[in-house]
# Entry
Amino acid sequence: MKLTKIAATLIALSVGASATVTADERYVIQVDNSKKGVVKALAKKMGGELNLDGNGFIAATFSGKDLAQVKGLLNNPHIKLVEVDQRRSLMSFSDDTGNPMTDQVTPYAVYQSKVNDVGFVASAGMKVCIIDSGLDRSNPDFVWGNIDGDNDIGTGNWDENGGPHGTHVAGTIGAADNSVGVVGMAPGVEMHIIKVFNADG
# Structure
């Protein structure tokens, strides 16, 4: 596993880091796992404060030290890589407010993915396959002429609700732009529904 992937797993854990630690004082250090104890002891001896102990890496704060200084301090054959633990913050989003039974609401997923900044071309000939719990035929927020599916003897008809998840996913993707409910990322896109889950899961 590359260190950048390991570092990416620290996103949630980094949010809890001390507010006094600046972005260039905390480092992710990839280590030979069998010699991690040696590296941890070395880091502490060099003034580091251990923040996280992971599988094949540690994260430590070296107050007042830049990347070059930390690499110099930790010049050790058991250390594979040292990189700055980049500061992370929660993403902000704006969700429409309103009652989807009387108004059309744009779900946060549309804003979060920034798909609303890209023009959807309904005539582009794309079709989206949704493999989930079916689609609720009674839901008025779809262009039903653009939707087909496959029935399955084990899970039932594709257009009978097998639990709300499939309808939710289909709505996030392709709910119609029709002044009620929600508007999907690709409003009215052609969809093919494959129902693999029923109400019992």
Q: What stands out?
A: Residues 90 and 181 are 28 Å apart (CA to CA). The radius of gyration is 25 Å. The mean pLDDT is 82.
